[in-house]
Write a structure and sequence with these properties.
The protein has 764 residues and is α+β, with helices and mostly antiparallel strands. 17% of the residues lie in helices and 33% in strands. The two termini are 24 Å apart. Belongs to the glycosyl hydrolase 35 family.
Length: 764
């Protein structure tokens, strides 16, 4: 997917691709390095270079990024005497060794700009300012050491530390957040540029929470404000987030990552975010020479209105007119009057004409749909294999106390069985109580499932309390502790603990405590041990025909499907399932947790991306591990994802599209001619994705239509020719452009109203 994603980023007006370097995938075992396949960072950077873009390499090596263990390999946890991210010799030794290895690799391929390569900026550490207080003076010493260590690697390009206001002189302090145009205190030295390392286009989503939606207008406003205040580098986090395949997501983070970014999880354009930012980038680049002149003045235009003016010559002048008010404002600038929309910035590349306004969206809106292409609804399509519940005598790891989860599994599995047994003189109804610190706990007594409970992203401590029937004689308790990702942030990550804190049984008269009993442990599930999600592994266990009724959880399901025709992205609809993990042809497409609903009653994620590179033309092996009894594989479908509808809503007060204004050639005559000549007419521009054309106009109104692209109706002023004009201009075309102009629609029946054009069309 890399070439397509990079090309779309470039088309969106980006100059640089930022990427983290994931220590735990490149050195999963100490001294064993892996740069193969999807881990080939050199190939990725060269692909970026081939597209004519630069690279910012965020080495970390702690990266956070909602990535398992913040990118640190778990073996680091076992190094004697180690304390992460402080003035600790074992940690500094391994951090330096890793950073040296990555830099040496980049140098060997001549990838730094100082060598003629694309890497123009590198990052050391990541948001250390968030935890520095926990380490006091040792933290300050560590920051100084990290900066010196990085600079001594002699890459020939600058180093940056994000969220580090006191970054040493040798590195650049940078801002992370949604509003760095307002919150950033600025460089801590006059010889450093203003850098925004993370402009959050949305936010990561955790199970049980709704997605955070950030508007294109707000993002554009903050970027323009940062540039107005001499910002020189803005990185969108994320421009494309993608998918947390396998077990790479950190605790409680869903498998889909930043799906609301300008390029969604599947690599499709999320409109209008992608298009509006593309217009902003084009408008800023029209201001290149004045912005780079180094001459800036600030002029107050009102209580909450400001002009940031760059350059001083009449033929080399650009201005950004900022309105911080929630109401529109009319301002005077250079003997001209400008109406500024609420909370907006107007970009004037020549200090006269408005090329772009952050609050006025010319870009189309798009609707993404999933279409079922294959239903796996027949019981004959499925086979199943149910996990055994281990007893104490079957376990190999024994302890006289409760063990911590991560220390025991060493991140080889999400699952840890803990079992014990005890004698009961007589059968009785009792209550089992387990205080647990972690993510999920399933309980079994004498091999029978008694119930489950779980924590949340914000509350990890919970109580499993269930009525149980005990046998006369020996009784077995089996608890399955489940992690939904390793922690990824905060001080003293190496000290984090997950697991049962106390276990007791109350029989109505007495309590029996098990904390200091003999416990047996089993790391992982049988299906994981045999790799039943692969063709070879599936042959190692006894599968049986699917049965509709389930008395026990922890069932593996197996089916086959054919790859949908075409090039649209493919997604697995797991809306009928509960919680677990899914594999396609041996590749894990991530954890799922459909049964954990948000406060609005919705699953946090239903569809799970299957890259087409994971697929064969036919007979793809699908294996699903379902932890809960209620999961129903007969509801699973193989879907394709596409943009099926587009909509434009532009008023006559909008600036005309910036892209058509940009100087495309190097002909000086053309440049002089186009320099201040703008097409004054705004336009609705619609475009269907590749291979599709506008097949139907669902709504069209020129005049004063009510609502927006999601909910609309004809207003008090409406041209009766609206539909016919749009159909003629757009039907059976992949793209069309219609001026918001009365003459286009045969006249003006309401001359005193501000007109707009709203068009909603179907792509087929």
């Amino acid at each position: 997917m890399w070439p397509s994603l990079i090309a779309k980023a470039k088309s969106g007006g980006l100059d640089v691709i930022d990427t983290y370097v994931f220590w735990n995938i490149h050195e999963p075992q100490q001294g064993q390095f892996d740069f193969s396949g999807r881990r080939d960072i050199v190939k990725f950077i060269k692909e970026v270079q081939a597209h004519g873009l630069y690279v910012c390499l965020r080495i970390g090596p702690f990266i956070q990024g909602e990535w398992s263990y913040g990118g640190l390999p778990f073996w680091l946890h076992n190094v004697k005497g180690i304390v992460f991210r402080t003035d600790n010799e074992p940690f500094k030794y391994h951090m330096k060794r890793y950073a040296q290895m990555i830099v040496k690799l980049m140098k060997s391929e001549k990838l730094y700009a100082s060598q003629g390569g694309p890497i123009i900026l590198s990052q050391i550490e990541n948001e250390y300012g968030m935890i520095a207080r926990a380490f006091r003076q040792d933290g300050k010493s560590y920051v100084k050491w990290a900066a010196e260590m990085a600079v001594e690697l002699e890459t020939g390009v600058p180093w940056v530390m994000c969220k580090q206001d006191d970054a040493p002189d040798t590195v650049i302090n940078a801002c992370n957040g949604r509003k760095c145009g307002e919150t950033f205190k600025g460089p801590n030295s006059p010889n450093k540029p203003a850098i925004w390392t993370e402009n959050w286009t949305s936010f990561y989503q955790t199970y049980g929470e709704e997605p955070l939606i950030r508007s294109a207008e707000d993002i554009a406003f903050q970027v323009a404000l940062f540039i107005a205040k001499n910002g020189s580098f803005v990185n969108y986090y994320m421009y494309h987030g993608g998918t947390n395949f396998g077990r790479n997501a950190s605790q409680f983070v869903i498998t889909s990552y930043y799906d609301q970014a300008p390029l969604d999880e599947y690599g499709l354009l999320r409109q209008p975010k992608w298009g509006h930012l593309k217009e902003l980038h084009a408008a800023v680049k029209l201001c290149e020479k004045p912005l780079l002149s180094g001459l800036q003045t600030t002029i107050s235009l009102g209580k909450l209105q400001t002009a940031f003016v760059f350059g001083k010559k009449a033929n080399l002048c650009a201005a950004l007119l900022v309105n911080q008010d929630e109401c529109e404002a009319t301002v005077q600038f250079r003997n001209s009057s400008y109406l500024l929309s609420p909370k907006s910035i107007s970009v004037l590349p020549d200090c006269k004409n408005v090329a772009f306004n952050t609050a006025k969206v010319n870009a189309q809106y798009s609707t993404r749909t999933r279409e079922p292409r294959q239903k796996l609804s027949s019981s004959h399509m499925w086979e199943e294999f149910t996990e055994n519940v281990p007893s104490f005598s079957e376990t190999l790891i024994l302890s006289e106390s409760l063990l911590e989860h991560m220390n025991t599994t060493q991140d080889t599995s999400d699952y840890l069985w803990q079992t014990t047994r005890f004698q009961q003189p007589e059968g009785a109804q009792s209550v089992l109580k387990v205080n647990h610190l972690g993510h999920v706990l399933h309980g079994f007594v004498n091999g029978k499932f008694i119930g489950s409970t779980h924590g949340t992203f914000k509350a990890h401590r919970f109580l499993l309390e269930k009525n149980v029937s005990l046998n006369n004689g020996t009784n077995n308790i089996a608890l399955l502790s489940v992690m939904v990702g390793l922690p990824n942030s905060g001080a003293h990550l190496e000290r984090r603990a997950v697991g049962s804190r106390s276990v007791k049984i109350w029989n109505g008269k007495h309590s029996l405590y098990f904390n200091n009993y003999s416990w047996g442990y089993q790391v992982g599930l049988q299906g994981e041990k045999f790799h039943v999600y692969t063709e070879n592994g599936a042959a190692k266990v006894q599968w049986r025909k699917y049965r509709d009724s389930k008395s026990q959880p922890l069932t593996w399901y197996k089916a086959a499907f054919d790859t949908p025709e075409g090039t649209d992205p493919v997604a697995l609809n797991l809306g009928s399932m509960g919680k677990g993990e899914a594999w396609v042809n041996g590749q894990s497409i991530g954890r799922y947790w459909v049964s954990f609903h948000t406060s609005k009653g919705n699953p946090s994620q239903i569809w799970y991306h299957i890259p087409r590179s994971f697929l064969k033309p036919s007979s793809n092996l699908l294996v699903i591990l379902e932890e809960e009894r209620e999961g129903n594989p007969l509801g699973v479908t193989i879907d394709t994802v596409s943009v099926t509808e587009v909509c434009g809503h532009v008023s006559s007060s909008h600036p005309s599209p910036v892209i058509s204004q940009r100087r495309t050639g190097h002909n000086r005559k053309k440049q002089r001619h186009l320099k201040h000549q703008y097409d004054k007419r705004p336009k609705v521009q619609l475009q269907c994705p590749n291979g599709r054309k506008i097949s139907k106009v669902l709504f069209a109104s020129f005049g004063t239509p009510n609502g927006n692209c999601w909910s609309y109706s004809v207003g008090s002023c409406h041209s009766p020719k609206s539909l016919a004009v749009i159909q003629k201009a757009c039907l059976n075309k992949s793209r069309c452009s219609v001026p918001v102009w009365s003459k286009t629609f045969g006249g003006d029946s309401c001359p005193h109203a501000v007109k707009s054009l709203l068009v909603h069309a179907q792509c087929s």
